[in-house]
Amino acid sequence: MSGAPITRRSLIAAGGAILTSGLLLPAKASGLAPTPSMRGGSNNYRPGAPFVDRIGGGGFWMTGTVRRAGDGAPLSGQRIQIWAHTTEGYERDPQSHGATLTDANGEFRLEMPQIVPAFGQPHGHLAYDSAEFETVFLRPVMASSNDKTLSAHFVLQPA
Hints:
- This protein is mainly beta.
- The protein has 1 helix and 7 strands.
- Strand 5 and strand 6 (136-138) form a beta hairpin.
- The termini are far apart.
- Mean pLDDT is 87; it is low at 8-29.
Protein backbone atom coordinates (compact mmCIF):
# COMPACT_ATOMS: atom_id res chain seq x y z
CA MET A 1 0.00 0.00 0.00
CA SER A 2 1.11 3.50 -0.69
CA GLY A 3 1.84 5.83 2.17
CA ALA A 4 -0.54 8.53 0.92
CA PRO A 5 -3.53 9.10 3.16
CA ILE A 6 -6.98 8.36 1.80
CA THR A 7 -8.92 11.60 1.58
CA ARG A 8 -12.35 12.54 0.28
CA ARG A 9 -10.65 14.22 -2.70
CA SER A 10 -8.62 11.09 -3.61
CA LEU A 11 -11.76 8.90 -3.37
CA ILE A 12 -13.70 11.24 -5.69
CA ALA A 13 -10.82 11.35 -8.18
CA ALA A 14 -10.47 7.55 -8.17
CA GLY A 15 -14.22 7.09 -8.60
CA GLY A 16 -14.26 9.53 -11.50
CA ALA A 17 -11.37 7.70 -13.16
CA ILE A 18 -13.21 4.38 -12.89
CA LEU A 19 -16.44 5.86 -14.28
CA THR A 20 -14.77 7.56 -17.24
CA SER A 21 -12.74 4.48 -18.06
CA GLY A 22 -15.95 2.61 -18.79
CA LEU A 23 -15.41 -0.06 -16.15
CA LEU A 24 -18.74 0.66 -14.51
CA LEU A 25 -20.63 2.34 -17.37
CA PRO A 26 -21.54 0.70 -20.68
CA ALA A 27 -19.99 2.08 -23.85
CA LYS A 28 -21.92 5.06 -25.22
CA ALA A 29 -22.66 3.26 -28.51
CA SER A 30 -23.93 0.14 -26.74
CA GLY A 31 -27.56 -0.50 -27.52
CA LEU A 32 -27.59 1.85 -30.51
CA ALA A 33 -31.00 1.37 -32.11
CA PRO A 34 -31.32 0.64 -35.84
CA THR A 35 -32.52 3.40 -38.17
CA PRO A 36 -36.15 2.90 -39.22
CA SER A 37 -37.10 3.40 -42.86
CA MET A 38 -38.67 6.79 -43.51
CA ARG A 39 -42.11 7.19 -45.03
CA GLY A 40 -41.69 8.03 -48.73
CA GLY A 41 -38.05 7.00 -48.69
CA SER A 42 -38.49 4.24 -51.28
CA ASN A 43 -40.31 6.45 -53.80
CA ASN A 44 -38.76 5.99 -57.27
CA TYR A 45 -36.23 3.46 -55.95
CA ARG A 46 -34.37 1.56 -58.72
CA PRO A 47 -33.01 -1.82 -57.59
CA GLY A 48 -29.43 -2.34 -58.72
CA ALA A 49 -28.65 1.29 -59.62
CA PRO A 50 -25.08 1.39 -60.95
CA PHE A 51 -22.02 2.47 -58.98
CA VAL A 52 -20.95 5.93 -60.13
CA ASP A 53 -18.15 8.39 -59.38
CA ARG A 54 -20.64 11.26 -59.63
CA ILE A 55 -24.27 11.76 -60.63
CA GLY A 56 -24.56 14.25 -63.48
CA GLY A 57 -22.53 17.45 -63.45
CA GLY A 58 -22.16 17.61 -59.68
CA GLY A 59 -21.95 20.69 -57.47
CA PHE A 60 -23.90 19.24 -54.51
CA TRP A 61 -22.65 16.66 -51.97
CA MET A 62 -24.66 13.87 -50.35
CA THR A 63 -22.74 12.54 -47.35
CA GLY A 64 -23.28 10.28 -44.39
CA THR A 65 -22.25 7.39 -42.23
CA VAL A 66 -23.17 3.73 -41.83
CA ARG A 67 -22.84 2.00 -38.45
CA ARG A 68 -23.94 -1.31 -36.99
CA ALA A 69 -26.86 -1.36 -34.54
CA GLY A 70 -25.90 -2.29 -31.02
CA ASP A 71 -22.21 -1.44 -30.83
CA GLY A 72 -22.13 1.45 -33.33
CA ALA A 73 -19.14 0.06 -35.21
CA PRO A 74 -18.52 1.79 -38.57
CA LEU A 75 -19.35 -0.46 -41.54
CA SER A 76 -17.01 -0.33 -44.52
CA GLY A 77 -17.83 -1.52 -48.03
CA GLN A 78 -21.59 -0.98 -47.67
CA ARG A 79 -23.60 -0.07 -50.79
CA ILE A 80 -25.66 3.13 -50.53
CA GLN A 81 -27.94 4.17 -53.39
CA ILE A 82 -28.71 7.89 -53.77
CA TRP A 83 -31.31 9.67 -55.93
CA ALA A 84 -33.15 12.99 -55.95
CA HIS A 85 -35.00 15.60 -57.96
CA THR A 86 -32.18 17.86 -59.17
CA THR A 87 -31.46 20.66 -61.60
CA GLU A 88 -30.62 17.92 -64.15
CA GLY A 89 -33.43 15.41 -63.68
CA TYR A 90 -36.35 13.96 -61.77
CA GLU A 91 -36.28 11.27 -59.06
CA ARG A 92 -37.69 8.70 -61.48
CA ASP A 93 -35.00 9.30 -64.17
CA PRO A 94 -32.29 6.61 -64.37
CA GLN A 95 -29.57 9.30 -64.69
CA SER A 96 -30.67 10.74 -61.31
CA HIS A 97 -29.66 7.52 -59.50
CA GLY A 98 -26.28 6.20 -58.46
CA ALA A 99 -24.63 4.03 -55.83
CA THR A 100 -21.44 4.35 -53.81
CA LEU A 101 -19.62 2.38 -51.09
CA THR A 102 -18.68 3.36 -47.57
CA ASP A 103 -14.99 3.78 -46.75
CA ALA A 104 -13.01 2.20 -43.89
CA ASN A 105 -14.63 4.66 -41.44
CA GLY A 106 -18.17 3.81 -42.58
CA GLU A 107 -18.48 7.16 -44.38
CA PHE A 108 -19.85 7.83 -47.87
CA ARG A 109 -19.83 10.87 -50.11
CA LEU A 110 -21.25 11.29 -53.59
CA GLU A 111 -21.38 14.42 -55.72
CA MET A 112 -24.55 15.14 -57.67
CA PRO A 113 -26.44 18.08 -59.21
CA GLN A 114 -28.14 20.59 -56.91
CA ILE A 115 -31.24 19.18 -55.25
CA VAL A 116 -34.39 21.22 -55.93
CA PRO A 117 -37.79 21.08 -54.19
CA ALA A 118 -40.21 18.34 -55.17
CA PHE A 119 -43.69 18.52 -53.64
CA GLY A 120 -42.60 21.69 -51.83
CA GLN A 121 -39.57 20.18 -50.09
CA PRO A 122 -35.92 19.94 -51.15
CA HIS A 123 -35.02 16.37 -50.19
CA GLY A 124 -32.89 13.41 -51.15
CA HIS A 125 -33.44 9.66 -51.13
CA LEU A 126 -30.96 7.07 -49.91
CA ALA A 127 -31.15 3.32 -49.54
CA TYR A 128 -29.12 0.57 -47.98
CA ASP A 129 -30.32 -2.50 -49.88
CA SER A 130 -27.77 -5.31 -49.59
CA ALA A 131 -28.43 -8.68 -47.98
CA GLU A 132 -26.13 -8.48 -44.94
CA PHE A 133 -28.38 -6.00 -43.07
CA GLU A 134 -32.06 -5.07 -43.13
CA THR A 135 -33.06 -2.67 -45.93
CA VAL A 136 -33.43 0.98 -44.90
CA PHE A 137 -34.80 3.85 -47.01
CA LEU A 138 -34.16 7.45 -45.92
CA ARG A 139 -35.71 10.71 -47.15
CA PRO A 140 -33.89 13.59 -45.43
CA VAL A 141 -35.22 17.10 -46.02
CA MET A 142 -32.87 20.05 -46.51
CA ALA A 143 -33.16 23.11 -44.27
CA SER A 144 -32.91 25.32 -47.36
CA SER A 145 -32.99 24.68 -51.09
CA ASN A 146 -29.79 26.77 -51.24
CA ASP A 147 -27.81 24.21 -49.18
CA LYS A 148 -24.92 22.56 -51.04
CA THR A 149 -24.79 19.42 -48.87
CA LEU A 150 -27.16 16.96 -47.24
CA SER A 151 -26.20 14.28 -44.74
CA ALA A 152 -27.93 11.05 -43.83
CA HIS A 153 -26.88 8.47 -41.28
CA PHE A 154 -27.68 4.77 -41.21
CA VAL A 155 -27.59 2.42 -38.23
CA LEU A 156 -28.12 -1.04 -39.67
CA GLN A 157 -29.61 -4.16 -38.09
CA PRO A 158 -28.09 -7.47 -39.23
CA ALA A 159 -30.54 -9.45 -41.37
